[in-house]
Amino acid sequence: MINPDTPPRFIAVEGPIGVGKSTLTRRLAHSLGYQTLMEQAEDNPFLERFYAKRQHAALSAQLFFFFQRVQQLGELPQQDLIGGSYIADFLFQKDALFAEVTLDANELELYRKVYQQLQVEVPQPDLVIYLQAPVKVLRERIKQRGIAFERNMDADYLEQVNRAYSEFFHSYHQSPLVIVNAAEIDFAHNDRDYQQLLDYLLEIRSGRHYFNPTFL
C-alpha cells in the first residue's frame, strides 16, 4: 500500500468517451488505496435517446448528468476530500464543455441559468489526468465495449467532443495537469505502461506535464 501522504490528495481522470478513463481510475484507486467516484452513465435514462437523436434529448441528458455530479460531490464528507481518499473519473468543470457541444442556444441559456441558481461549489482536484486519443481510436474502443446504443454515436459528434476537450485543457490551469497520449496505451492489460504512469504521477505537485510511454 502506498503512503496516502505521498500522492496527490484528490485526483480526477478525464477524456472523451472510449479513451479509458474509467479503467485507469479503477486501477489507480486500487494501487493508491483510494475510493472511486464514478460517473454513472448507465443510470441516465435519456442517454440512449440522446445517441439516437441528439437534438431530442440533449438537454434532458445534460441536466441528468449535471445533477448527478452535483449530488455525488455534495455527498462527499469534506474531511475525506481534504484527507485525500478519492479518485474520480470525471472533472466537474467538463459538464459545461458538453453543454456547449450538445445544446442549442436556448437550451444552453437555460442550462447556464440552472447552474448559476444552484451556485455550485465543488472542490478542485490536486491533480487532473487528461487522456487523449484520435477519433479513430475512440471509435474502435467504443465498438469493443459492445454497448448497443453507443453504436449510434456518429463520428462528427465524437470529433466535436474531442476538439472541445483539447480546447478546454489547452487553457486549463486550475490544477496540476498531466496530458497522456492514450492512443496506444492499454492500461487494463499493459502493466509496463501503467506502472510508468503511476510512478510519474507520484512526482507531480504543480504545473503542466505530458506523458507518452512510447518515447520514454
Automatic annotation (TrEMBL):
Q: Which InterPro entries match?
A: DCK/DGK, Deoxyribonucleoside_kinase, DNK_dom, P-loop_NTPase
Start and end residues of each Deoxynucleoside kinase domain: 11-199
Show the GO cellular component annotation of the record.
Answer: cytoplasm
Task: State one molecular function term (GO).
Answer: ATP binding
Where are the active-site residues found?
D89 (proton acceptor)
Residues binding ATP, per UniProt: G15, P16, I17, G18, V19, G20, K21, S22, T23, R141, I142, K143, Q144, R145
* PANTHER family referenced in this protein's UniProt entry, alphabetically: DEOXYGUANOSINE KINASE, DEOXYNUCLEOSIDE KINASE
- Descriptive protein name: Deoxynucleoside kinase
The opening ranks of the lineage are: Bacteria, Pseudomonadati, Pseudomonadota, Gammaproteobacteria, Cellvibrionales
